[in-house]
Write a structure and sequence with these properties.
The structure is a single chain. This protein has 304 residues and is α/β, with parallel strands linked by helices. The chain has 3 domains: 127 residues, Rossmann fold, CATH 3.40.50; 79 residues, no CATH class; 70 residues, Orthogonal Bundle (Arc Repressor Mutant, subunit A), CATH 1.10.10.10. It contains 13 helices and 8 strands. A 5-stranded parallel β-sheet has the order 2-3-4-1-5, sandwiched between helices. The chain is flat and about 60 Å long. The termini are far apart.
Length: 304
C-alpha cells in the first residue's frame, strides 16, 4: 500500500519572493514537482508564467481533451505548469490526470509539474487524481506576500515609494501583490486609498472576498480587515437579481453559476462551499429588508 504524504509549508514563507523563487527552482532542477497555494490576489498565475515551460490555464482550456491536446502538441518535456488545479478536481478530468502521470513516468527526473491552487489539495482528491496525487503533493508551498524591498518590481513609471509610503503600503496591503500595485498607483496618481472612493481598489477587494471570503492570508491587510460594505458586491447583486426574477421559485445552483459567474468558463470549478458562502452573505445583508432566502437541499434556493 502506498503511503501518501505532503511536505506542506503551513506558515507563510518569510524569505520574500526572490528567495521563494530560488526554493521552487531548486525543486524543479531535481526533476521534482511542487504545488503552490495562494488565494485570489496573490499573483500566483503571474508567478507560474514567470517560471517558463508550458503554461496551462484551465480557465482557457475548458475540457480534458483540450488540456491533453495542448500537452501532446507541445515539445516541452521539462516543465509543465497547471493553473487552477482546484477548478478541475472532478471525475471528468481523471483520464487527463492519468495521462500526466504516465507522461511523468516516461520522463522521470526530467519532467516537473507545478500545480497552482487556491488552497492545498487534500487526501479527499485521491480518487480523482489517482497516482498523480503523490506527485502533486511532493512539495506543497504557500506563495509568500511581497516584502517592502520588492514593491519596486512592479516598475511603475516615474514612481518609487518613499520609506514612509512603503510602510503605509505594507500596512494597507499586507504585501498582497494586487493590493500593493493598486496602492502604488493611487499614491503615484494622487488618488484615494478609500475603497469607497477608489473603484479599482473596491472592485479588487470585493473580488478577493467573493473568491476566498475567509482566507487567513488576508489577515495582515488592514484594507481587507476593515472593509465593511453596506452595498452588495457585484456577485451578490447578480444573485439577488436572479432570485427576484424568480421570486417564489426555486433557483438551481446551475442557474446561479450561469448568472453570477458569467465570465467563468469552467463552471465545474465553482465549489458548493463558495456558493453556500455567497448565499450566506446575501442572506445576512437582506434579512432586515423583509426578504428571506430558503435552502431546498438538492434543488437550490428560493427568495420569499
Amino acid at each position: 500500500m502506498t503511503e501518501y504524504h505532503t511536505n506542506l509549508t503551513n506558515k507563510a514563507y518569510n524569505g520574500g519572493m526572490d528567495e521563494f523563487r530560488k526554493r521552487i527552482l531548486s525543486f524543479l532542477a531535481r526533476g521534482e514537482s511542487v504545488q503552490i497555494a495562494a488565494p485570489h490576489g496573490f499573483g500566483k498565475s503571474r508567478f507560474g508564467r514567470s517560471l517558463g515551460g508550458l503554461y496551462l490555464d484551465t480557465n482557457m482550456l475548458q475540457t480534458p481533451a483540450e488540456l491533453s491536446t495542448a500537452v501532446k502538441e507541445s515539445a516541452e518535456r521539462t516543465l509543465i505548469i497547471l493553473d487552477y488545479l482546484d477548478h478541475i478536481l472532478t471525475a471528468e478530468y481523471t483520464p487527463f490526470f492519468k495521462y500526466l502521470k504516465a507522461l511523468r513516468d516516461q520522463h522521470k527526473y526530467q519532467l516537473s509539474y507545478v500545480f497552482l491552487t487556491s488552497y492545498p489539495i487534500t487526501l479527499e482528491t485521491l480518487n480523482i487524481l489517482g497516482d498523480l496525487y503523490e506527485i502533486a503533493t511532493e512539495h506543497v508551498e504557500n506563495l509568500p506576500t511581497l516584502t517592502r524591498a520588492e514593491y519596486d518590481n512592479f516598475g511603475l513609471s516615474g514612481f518609487s515609494p518613499t520609506s514612509q509610503q512603503a510602510l503605509e503600503i505594507e500596512k494597507l496591503s499586507g504585501g498582497i501583490a494586487s493590493l500593493v500595485k493598486i496602492c502604488m498607483l493611487a499614491m503615484r496618481d494622487g488618488t484615494s486609498l478609500d475603497p469607497n472612493q477608489n473603484l479599482k481598489l473596491k472592485g479588487q477587494i470585493e473580488e478577493m472576498v467573493t473568491a476566498n471570503p475567509h482566507h487567513l492570508a488576508y489577515a495582515k491587510s488592514t484594507l481587507m480587515q476593515n472593509y465593511k460594505t453596506t452595498d452588495l458586491t457585484a456577485a451578490e447583486t447578480r444573485l439577488l437579481d436572479l432570485l427576484k426574477t424568480n421570486l417564489g421559485k426555486i433557483v438551481s445552483k446551475d442557474q446561479i453559476c450561469d448568472s453570477v459567474y458569467p465570465d467563468v468558463k469552467n463552471k465545474a470549478g465553482i465549489s458548493d462551499h463558495s456558493l453556500d458562502q455567497l448565499i450566506h452573505r446575501l442572506r445576512s445583508k437582506i434579512k432586515n429588508l423583509g426578504s428571506s432566502i430558503t435552502t431546498h437541499r438538492g434543488l437550490g434556493y428560493k427568495l420569499s
